[in-house]
Amino acid sequence: METASLDLPTAAAGAPQAIRRMPIAGLALADIAGCDAIARVEAALDRRQVLRLGFVNAHCVNVARRDRDYRAALSTFLLLPDGIGVDIAAQILHGAPFTENLNGTDFVPRLAAALAAPRRIALVGAAPGVARRAADNLRQVVPQHEVIVVADGYFGTTGLAGVLSRLQALKPDIVLVGMGVPAQELFIARHLDARHGTVFVAVGALFDFLAGNVARAPKTVRRLRLEWAWRLALEPKRLFRRYVFGNPVFLRDVLLDRLRHAGGRGRP
C-alpha cells in the first residue's frame, strides 16, 4: 500500500526533510530507525523547536479508534512504533514491518544516553514516590544530565497551575510525562508548550520500570516479541482486558481496514 511522508525536525541544516510514515487507523506512525529519531530529537533541542514524541502500540490504536480527542492529540506528535502488534498491522496494511521497534521503555534511556550535551530532564507522572525513585535510578545511568521530579500524576485540576508554573521556572529541555494512555498525550497537547520545555515525551509505564516497581521481561522473551505476555502474567487483573480482549479486536479491525482499502473505500 502507498505510504505518506511527514515533515519533522532533522539534524541537518535547512528545511525539515520528509520521513516515511505508515498509517494505522489514521495514526501517522513514523517508519524510522532509532538513531534517526534520536538525531531529530537532538536537532529540536538545539533549535529550541517544540517536539512532541509518543509511542503507539496495539492498545493505543484501539483507544484512538474510539476517542476523538486522543486521535486529535496524537496528530501533533511524532509517533514511534511500539510492539509486535503495530508491526503485524504494518505488514498487513503496507506490505512490510516498521524499520525498528521503538518502545518507550527502551528508547527513552537510549535517547538520554545518546544526547551529546548535558540536558535538564523533568519528570511528571506515576504514583507518589515512583517518579522520585525512577529519577534516582535514571541519574545512575545518565549522570551527565540533570533529572528533576516535578510532580506525580495525581495533582488533578487544582494542582495543574502549580505544575505548569514549576515547569516554566525550571525551563527543562525534556519533559517526560507518565500518566498512561490517553491522559499523558492529552496533558501534553492541551497544556505544554515552549514555556514549559522543548521536547515532551509521553512515556507510559517507564517510571514504574525505572523505579523497579515492574520487572522487565528476560531478554529472550523480549527478543521473541512477547513482553506483552510477560506483563500480562505479572499484572493479570489490570492487563487482562487490554491484551486478551484488546489484541484480537486490534487484529480484526486492521483486517477490516485492509478489506476496505482493497475495496477502494478508504485508506488505512
UniProtKB/TrEMBL annotation:
Record keywords, A-Z: Glycosyltransferase, Transferase
Can you name this protein? Answer: WecB/TagA/CpsF family glycosyltransferase
Q: Is Transferase one of the keywords?
A: yes
Q: Name one Pfam family in it.
A: Glyco_tran_WecG
Tree of life domain: Bacteria
Signal peptide (UniProt feature, chain positions): none
